[in-house]
């Protein structure tokens, strides 16, 4: 648990039956109004606010978050401003996990944040929010969310080709070409793209870019130089690395790392709980 004067964050593992779908639950209680940096995820994220308000900040643009929202994969760092005395649960889905819950093609969510009621019954969402508001602690709220998810499980199986591709991309930490990967898997490049987008919510190349960016952040915590970072994640030169980094953050690596701060437990939830692996 990460606990300071600004917020308290708990990372909770899902129950065994939901572990193939969900990497972790992140339960955050906001004590003081602040802006939190959320690094890109490798799976769909469902955010359920049980107290307070929140808004996303994009340069000079500010947008309001629905109390229950679903965020698609995106090659961008998101900045969220939360009010004091607020609270939220983040459901970090595994790459194919959200496809077991939501029927809509997940590539339609790419780069967007939509209200949960756009994907399921608004009355069910209202009931979920009521139960979360009346729960007294993180464990109780996670139990409420797990019950909600179990009721919506769809009778579909994981795509084995997509699963193999996801594992290969994670193994290479995003530093691989997709066309040779498709040939190795015995499928055309276009067919892999279509199947991947439908159940992951992004193309294989987009997922690879996200994984590589996350690897950059993990290495940077060990104080590697930018030249070392560029080389270790497969960039041919530092200038290419800096251009790609700007796509995600809107700023240079030097500026980003000088101003960005991460709660350790929140970071662990986003990086260390078995991304890309399933029991």
Any overview of this molecule?
This protein has helices spanning 122-134, 138-150, 160-171, 178-184, 189-200, 204-220, 226-232, 238-249, 253-259, 264-271, and strands spanning 2-3, 7-12, 22-30, 34-38, 45-51, 54-58, 61-64, 68-71, 78-82, 86-93, 113-115. It has 279 residues and is of the alpha+beta class. The chain folds into 2 domains: 2-150, Jelly Rolls, CATH 2.60.120; 160-271, Homeodomain-like (Arc Repressor Mutant, subunit A, Orthogonal Bundle), CATH 1.10.10.60. Strand 1 and strand 2 form a beta hairpin. The radius of gyration is 18 Å and the shape is globular. The relative contact order is 0.16. Mean pLDDT is 86; it is low at 272-279.
Distance between the termini: 24 Å
- Describe the main β-sheet briefly: 7 strands, antiparallel
CATH third-level topology of the largest domain: Jelly Rolls
Mean of pLDDT: 86
- Main-sheet strand order equals 1-2-3-10-5-8-11
Q: Enumerate how many helices there are, as a single number.
A: 10
Shape: globular
Radius of gyration: 18 Å
Summarize the amount of helix as a percent range: 25-40%
**Percent of residues in β-strands:** 15-25%
- The CATH fourth-level homologous superfamily of the largest domain: Jelly Rolls
Total count of strands: 11
CATH class of the largest domain: Mainly Beta
Number of domains: 2
- Low-confidence segments, given as residue ranges, are 272-279
Order of helices and strands: EEEEEEEEEEEHHHHHHHHHH
Protein topology:
Blueprint: E1 2-3, E2 7-12, E3 22-30, E4 34-38, E5 45-51, E6 54-58, E7 61-64, E8 68-71, E9 78-82, E10 86-93, E11 113-115, H1 122-134, H2 138-150, H3 160-171, H4 178-184, H5 189-200, H6 204-220, H7 226-232, H8 238-249, H9 253-259, H10 264-271
Antiparallel strand pairs: 1-2, 2-3, 3-10, 4-9, 5-8, 5-10, 6-7, 6-9, 8-11
Helix pairs in contact: 1-2, 3-6, 7-8
């Amino acid at each position: 648990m990460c606990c300071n004067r600004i917020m308290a964050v708990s990372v909770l593992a899902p129950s065994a039956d939901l572990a193939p779908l969900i990497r972790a639950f992140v339960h955050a209680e906001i004590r003081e109004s602040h802006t939190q940096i959320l690094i890109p995820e490798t799976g769909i994220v469902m955010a359920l606010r049980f107290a307070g308000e929140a808004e996303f900040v994009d340069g000079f643009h500010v947008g309001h978050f629905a109390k229950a929202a679903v965020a698609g994969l995106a090659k961008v760092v998101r900045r969220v401003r939360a009010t004091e005395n607020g609270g939220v649960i983040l459901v970090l889905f595994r790459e194919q996990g959200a496809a077991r819950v939501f029927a809509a093609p997940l590539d339609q969510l790419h780069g967007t944040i939509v209200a949960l009621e756009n994907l399921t019954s608004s009355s069910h969402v209202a009931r979920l929010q009521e139960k979360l508001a009346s729960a007294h602690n993180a464990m109780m709220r996670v139990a409420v969310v797990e019950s909600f998810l179990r009721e919506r499980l769809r009778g579909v199986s994981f795509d084995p080709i997509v699963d193999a591709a996801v594992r290969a991309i994670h193994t290479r930490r995003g530093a691989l070409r997709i066309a040779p990967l498709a040939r190795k898997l015995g499928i055309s490049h276009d067919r892999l793209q279509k199947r991947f987008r439908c159940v992951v919510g992004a193309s294989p190349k987009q997922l690879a870019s996200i994984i590589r960016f996350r690897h950059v952040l993990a290495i940077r915590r060990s104080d590697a130089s930018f030249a070392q970072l560029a080389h270790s994640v497969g960039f041919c030169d530092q200038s290419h690395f800096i251009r790609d980094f700007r796509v995600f953050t809107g700023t240079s690596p030097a500026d980003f790392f000088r101003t960005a701060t991460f709660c350790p437990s929140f970071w662990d939830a986003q990086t260390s709980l078995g991304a890309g692996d399933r029991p």
